[in-house]
Amino acid sequence: MNEYQYDHQTVKGFILSSIFWGVVGIVIGLWISIQMWNADWNIAPYFTFGRLRVVHTNGLAFGLGVGAIFGIFYYIVMRLTKRPLLFPKLARVHLWVFNAAIALAALSLFAGMNQSLEYAELEWPLDIGIVILWVMFAVNIFGTVIKRKEEQMYISLWYIIATVVAVAVLYIVNNLSIPAGLTKSYSVFAGVNSANVEWWYGHNAVGFVFTTPILAMFYYFLPKSTGLPIYSHRLSIIAFWSLIFGYLWTGAHHLVYTPLPDWIQTTAIVFTIFLIAPSWGSVVNGYYTVGSDWSKMQSQYLTKFFIWGITFYGLQTVQGPTQALRVVSSLIHYTDWVPGHVHMGTMGWVTMTTAASMYYIIPKIYNTEIYSVKAANTHFWLVLVGQLMFSVTMWITGIQQGALWKATNADGSLKYTFYETLIKNYPFWRLRTLAGVIFTVGMLFFIYNILMTIRKGSILAASKA
Amino acid sequence: MADHFVDDIEKFEAKETAHTLPVGWVILFWALILWGVYYFYMYTPSLGGWSQNSALEESLQK
Prior knowledge:
The structure holds two protein chains of two kinds.
Chain A: H1 3-6, H2 8-35, H3 49-81, H4 88-110, H5 124-146, H6 155-174, E1 177-179, E2 185-187, H7 191-209, H8 212-226, H9 233-247, H10 262-274, H11 276-291, H12 296-299, H13 301-324, H14 326-332, H15 337-366, H16 373-406, H17 418-423, H18 426-464
Antiparallel strand pairs in A: 1-2
Helix pairs in contact in A: 2-3, 2-4, 2-18, 3-4, 3-5, 3-8, 3-15, 4-5, 5-6, 6-7, 6-8, 6-9, 8-11, 8-13, 8-15, 9-11, 11-13, 13-15, 15-16, 15-18, 16-18
Chain B: H1 23-42, H2 52-61
């Protein structure tokens, strides 16, 4: 067994890096949640809401999310292709470049450099760095898949390929801009075009960072950890291709009731509603898989992470399309239900599935067991309660906000001032901070468990050597 | 090569149900496509006649 050849060091490096950026992102998330109900927590200029929020979103989406995706994809690809990475040294360089890029990204956002495009805030020099980073990743993934030793390509590999291709296209197109100095640029798109391209990017970032890569993990680690085979190959494949086909048309549902042409909004809504089918294809496939032996929910601690994870994915993929409908959008657009929706996805589906994948990988690398199943169970219940509290309080206050904004007097004038609607959010925003604290404590159990497993594994390896 | 480095691809997917599609899911799949055709027709100005502007005008009449 050649450790370097199978390059588990790089996998582990990405997992630990992503956990580090996750801590930064979650702490800042807690901080900005307090700023919502206590403005004294803004410290100008670096620690104001406007700057911290983008560090929170970028830190978690790209630091925690994409970092985990890099490491876990390398692991899955090596095993499904039955060979080491084609360029293990490149993967090691990729790890260092990734951390440097995220650190610079965070610093530039703290400094207030911002393209003013949501989830694409980074200025052009960093964009170029990220494209180089992605090419390094793509070369290794595609190279290894092409030179694979296993002819059959399991469904996870298809999701991995879709992720690598789609993110590249989305990122490059939305970041096309004309530089005006080292830290300032102007987008090549303007007006309605700019909005349409931005949300085509923004929504598919959700699609190809928070959906397809997490499904790749789900389809790989669910059968691996439970020993139960995926129920239907055909369902996996049909759900995959219809998801990929549908997703890229849906971005304009973020622009319902705007100057964007009606037919573009309608097309986006149609495809968004259609996506319920492929999304639930994966949900149903997961349920039927564990349905062959439900006792796994108790006997194998990772099963509930995957089953609850896919359940939140299922709830998300009904909630999101519902919000896209014109009648619902007109009530809840621009309200707190939108971050409520996002966080059920990120805290429920993405983080739960990713954490479970890491629980599987780390002991496997050291050929040992997890440090504490009990701590993992505590982690599970805390993040479940924290996330549900977060989502539900945001739904309630979001619907309340929308209803108050729309309320009119008999003469047609607005019934409430903006300030009156704002202060009604305060109790819910305080509850959200509490929910965030519960979630964070859960994540601390996770991190402790992972670090102790690594410690245990290192001692074990040292005693064998 | 240690055993746990090799995945048995055969074990990932069930044999008997490999080609099964749950009936409820197939109905959902086609129903959503049909609904999409209907909605696209109804809410495209050059087809069903609905438009954001005309809807606004109407709401102001009330």
